[in-house]
């Protein structure tokens, strides 16, 4: 099966592109921030400078692990589901679930090692830029030189490889369980059964986020900027929880909006049908929208509340305040860049895969315009779900931190910040989905169906 995995990687290079890109970007970011540990040790940084370097590495390392696992799981799940019929046929000729599992894990591990190797140079360059930023804001002395060594290489390879292998195990267990006939039927219609573990994990993330929100509003009230330590994590954990519950959210939205979408005629009917039949694939697309919106809105408003609180206290220009703001924006910038790329990557891969489906719809009588209209409606609905869930997740940070720092759960905030985040999410989602669909429907219907 390992040999088959390597041959599969060579034969299906395009099909693994989305997963490879997620691993490559994840490894680049992880190594860039992990190199701060190498810098702290090799450069003999002391005091506040050493603490800053360690925090940059460890905080981003933990969040990076979660985000890379989610990104790789999302794209790898999409890739494996695209091959559900192939795997069902392997089962029909005698392949055991364990053998298929080893093949998929072997494919994922090979991708992870290749992505890590190619990410070493970009990771080194990104780490150099990160240290220069810390130098320019006086958080680390100019005398501390940059070092890229064992911590960066080990964390980059280790986290990427573990994420890939773990995602492969999770994905393949869902795909190969069940009887051969059931697997073939599911593959034919794109049906995916919801996992209880996923739902349980989503609920746990939400409960932890709620706990952090309560701690921020009560225990951390009056503790100054220390409240950022608990508040800053709540929105990301809530976003992760809602992202894991995305299949249920999409099914609920499709049921509630079936009649309104029907007003759009054939395009609306096609959109409802897709959302109901391909909930798993649609969930993979809405995940990054939730993460992007929740992390962006929560962290940007957190920093705005902190800036207002410091200004009211006459401390807005302190070096410590500027350093904390820089650290927050660097970390959130990393998260947002990664989730934005993950959003585009996932949507392009998911939509491009549907070329055969689009061909079948056209052979059944739908026009290319109706197919594109259906994809547009799907994109609007997915964006709406993602933005609404992300905005809700941000409240786990904004409301309690407002209580802790401003004395009110409803502090005055700049609405343009939220509008800008929503505009970016809408632009990325619609451009990726509709652009990919437009390219897909250019292929003649008969040719697309026979792919």
UniProtKB/TrEMBL annotation:
The keyword Transmembrane helix applies. Keywords: Cell membrane, Membrane, Transmembrane, Transmembrane helix. Its main location: membrane. This is FtsX-like permease family protein. Belongs to the ABC-4 integral membrane protein family. It is a multi-pass membrane protein. It is found in: Cell membrane. The chain crosses the membrane at residues 12-33, 53-78, 111-131, 151-172, 199-220, 240-261, 282-303, 323-350, 371-396, 416-434.
């Amino acid at each position: 099966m390992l040999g088959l995995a390597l041959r599969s990687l060579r034969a299906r290079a395009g099909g693994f592109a989305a997963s490879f890109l997620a691993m490559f970007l994840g490894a680049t970011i992880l190594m860039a921030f992990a190199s701060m540990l190498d810098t702290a040790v090799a450069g003999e940084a002391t005091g506040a400078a050493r603490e800053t370097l360690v925090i940059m590495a460890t905080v981003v390392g933990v969040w990076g692990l979660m985000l890379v696992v989610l990104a790789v799981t999302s794209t790898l799940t999409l890739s494996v589901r695209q091959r559900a019929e192939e795997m069902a046929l392997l089962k029909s000729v005698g392949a055991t679930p364990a053998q298929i599992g080893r093949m998929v894990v072997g494919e994922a591990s090979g991708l992870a090692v290749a992505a890590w190797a190619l990410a070493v140079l970009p990771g080194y360059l990104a780490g150099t830029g990160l240290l220069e930023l810390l130098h320019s804001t006086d958080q680390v002395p100019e005398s501390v030189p940059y070092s890229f060594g064992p911590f960066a290489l080990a964390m980059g390879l280790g986290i990427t490889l573990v994420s890939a292998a773990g995602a492969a195990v999770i994905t393949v267990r869902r795909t190969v369980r069940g009887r051969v006939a059931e697997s073939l039927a599911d593959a034919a219609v794109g049906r995916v059964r919801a996992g209880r573990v996923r739902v349980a994990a989503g609920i746990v993330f939400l409960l932890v986020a709620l706990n952090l929100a309560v701690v921020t509003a009560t225990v951390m009230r009056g503790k100054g900027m220390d409240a950022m330590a608990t508040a800053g994590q709540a929105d990301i954990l809530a976003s992760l929880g809602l992202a894991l519950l995305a299949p249920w959210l999409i099914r609920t939205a499709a049921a509630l909006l079936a009649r309104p979408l029907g007003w759009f005629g054939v395009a609306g009917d096609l959109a409802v049908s897709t959302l109901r039949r391909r909930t798993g694939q649609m969930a993979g697309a809405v995940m990054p929208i939730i993460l992007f919106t929740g992390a962006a809105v929560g962290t940007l408003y957190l920093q705005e509340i902190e800036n207002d609180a410091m200004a009211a206290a006459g401390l807005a220009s302190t070096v410590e305040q500027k350093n904390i703001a820089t650290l927050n924006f660097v970390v959130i910038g990393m998260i947002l860049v990664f989730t934005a790329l993950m959003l585009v990557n996932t949507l392009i891969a998911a939509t491009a895969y549907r070329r055969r489906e689009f061909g079948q719809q056209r052979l059944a009588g739908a026009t290319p315009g109706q197919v594109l209209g259906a994809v547009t409606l799907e994109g609007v609905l997915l964006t709406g779900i993602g933005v609404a869930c992300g905005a809700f997740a941000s409240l786990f940070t904004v409301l309690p931190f407002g209580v802790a720092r401003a004395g009110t759960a409803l502090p005055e905030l700049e609405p343009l910040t939220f509008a800008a985040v929503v505009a970016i999410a809408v632009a990325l989602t619609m451009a990726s989905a509709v652009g990919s669909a437009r390219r897909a429907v250019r292929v003649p219907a008969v040719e697309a169906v026979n792919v």
